[in-house]
Structure formats: C-alpha cells, structure tokens
Backbone:
C-alpha cells in the first residue's frame, strides 16, 4: 500500500461522500486506502461513512463512542494506517484532495519524513486564523519548530514516523507535538485553500484554549523554566530594591509611603503564586489523567475491515 488517507469526520454528512468520491478519482493511479474516523457526530455522518465502506473496497471506517476531539480521532486513524505514506485531510473540502499528490511528490523528492501544506491565502474565519497564529508562535518556542513552518492539519507523514506516533497512549495527543518528538526532517509546499463548502467551523474559544494549554503544558517544560527565570529575576530585583530603600532611608534622599510598597508587594506576590500554582496544577492534572489509564479514544464499531483477507495495521505491526 503506497498511501493511506486519514479523515477525521465530525458532522459532515453532506461533504464526506463527495470528498471520498473525489479521492477515488484523483488517486486512481495510486495503491491507496481511506480510513474514516467518526468523532461522535450528531448528524448522519456515521450512516454515510458505513455506506461508503460498502461502495468502495478500499474504504475503512471506525466510529468512536463519543466526541474525543480531532487529534484523538486522527490518532485512531493513524493506528489503522497501512500505507508507506499517510495523508491527513479535513472533511470540509477546504483542502483539495488532488494536493495529496503534490505532498507525496515533495516527500519523495526531498526524502522528507513529514510534509506540511501551506497556503498563499487562507480561507478560514479570522478567529481560526488568529488561533492558528497563536499556536504556531507557541510551538516555535516550545517544540523547536522552524519559524517559517506553518503547522497545517493537512499533511503527509512517512510510515516510520506514524509507527512512533501511535505508540502514544495518553488522553492528550497533539499530532504535531508527537511529530517533532520524532523528527526534524520536515518540509512544506504551497497548496490551494478553498472556501468551506458546507456548515461552519467547529473551532471555538474553548477548543482554542484547550489546544493552547495542551501545547503549552503537555509537550514542553518551558512554562516551568520561564517561571524559574522570573522567580530568580524577582529575587535579584527584590534584593536590589531592598538596598535602594535602605540607602534612601539612610541618606534621606528618597521616601515612599509604606502602604504603597506593601500593597505592590502583596499583589505581585499573590499574582505570581497563583499563576505558578495554576501551571503546576495543569502538569499534575495531566500526569494524573495519563497515569489513570484514560484512553485517547474508544472505538464503538468498525466497518470495512472484514470484507477482504487483509492484515490490519496495529501498533505492533507498525513498529515492525
């Protein structure tokens, strides 16, 4: 199998069939399969995906028991990927399926482990563009990502990297964070970006904050190091300020009401302590959830896996 296309599906009953149909047309010269992962859709997406497995022999479908999140659904799809390369594409048609061939060409020619797409003009809502900018800026410092690299959800990953990614068993997968734990051999290529065909983006303030905290806390010790530096800097500043106050009092050249200094000190110390405790709490919470065995996803049912005599991809098979 040369290529596997993983599609996380969420409330896309009107777009998922045209997307799969178009994949069959534009990739007909390739040996490929499609893995659909329904992430707890509230519409008829599950039924449509099941019908697609009956219509196409190379389409497989996993339905999750509830909505776990996009990255969790993608991780599930990667677990069942069998191709030498795996493409991840959204279900909203904003990424043309034909561009998968472009990603493959760049991966082969440049011998890249991962190839990201980038856009000359993004057609996302301004709020999602803002969120993408914030996350990309954060990952530049927390993951060591090159500054010019845009972490698009539309990307192509080589099989060996997929094998390492699916070893993750915690409840907070961040696919790009897992990628940069494995490799720095990453390329990018410009592809078209289309207007959304149907519905609206599921990108909300809650999801943006969750993703931001997941990247900040779950894949880096940068916040703790930052507060260590801040604390040490405040210690030095406090010592210098103490010498300054003492010198001013001894020479009678400077005086400040005592209540002003005490108030500033209390507010500053309280804010720093609460912020620091909040970050430590996030780390402890994630460690607790991970150690308690909370899975990244739970499969409800599969379709398209028993129609042929095939060897299914599992974590152990990918590792070999």
Residues:
């Amino acid at each position: 199998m040369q290529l596997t296309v993983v599609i996380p599906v969420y409330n896309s009953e009107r777009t998922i069939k045209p997307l799969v149909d178009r994949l069959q047309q534009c990739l007909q010269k390739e040996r490929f399969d499609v893995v659909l992962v329904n992430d707890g859709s509230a519409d008829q997406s599950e039924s449509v995906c099941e019908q697609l497995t009956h219509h196409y022999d190379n389409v497989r479908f996993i339905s999750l028991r509830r909505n776990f999140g996009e990255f969790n659904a993608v991780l599930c799809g990667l677990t069942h990927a069998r191709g030498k390369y795996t493409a991840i594409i959204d279900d909203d048609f904003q990424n043309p399926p034909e561009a998968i061939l472009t990603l493959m060409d760049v991966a082969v020619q440049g011998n890249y482990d991962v190839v990201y797409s980038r856009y000359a003009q993004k057609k996302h809502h301004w709020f999602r563009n803002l969120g993408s900018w914030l996350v990309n800026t954060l990952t530049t410092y927390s993951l060591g990502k090159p500054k010019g690299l845009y972490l698009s959800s539309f990307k192509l990953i080589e099989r060996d990297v997929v094998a390492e990614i699916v070893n993750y068993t915690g409840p907070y997968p961040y696919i790009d964070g897992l990628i940069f734990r494995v490799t720095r051999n990453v390329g990018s290529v410009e592809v078209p970006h289309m207007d959304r065909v149907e519905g609206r983006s599921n990108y909300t303030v809650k999801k943006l904050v969750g993703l931001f905290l997941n990247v900040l806390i779950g894949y880096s010790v940068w916040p703790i190091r930052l507060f260590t530096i801040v604390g040490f800097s405040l210690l030095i500043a406090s010592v210098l300020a103490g010498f300054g106050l003492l010198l001013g009092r001894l020479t009678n050249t400077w005086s400040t009401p005592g209540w002003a200094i005490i108030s500033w000190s209390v507010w500053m110390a309280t804010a720093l302590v609460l912020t620091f405790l909040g970050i430590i709490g996030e780390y402890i919470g994630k460690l607790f959830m991970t150690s308690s065995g909370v899975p990244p996803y739970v499969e409800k049912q599969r379709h398209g896996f028993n129609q042929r005599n095939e060897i299914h991809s599992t974590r152990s098979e990918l590792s070999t």
User: Anything to note?
Assistant: The longest strand covers residues 3-9. The two ends are 15 Å apart (CA to CA). Strands lie at 3-9, 32-38, 59-64, 85-88, 114-118, 155-158, 186-190, 299-303.
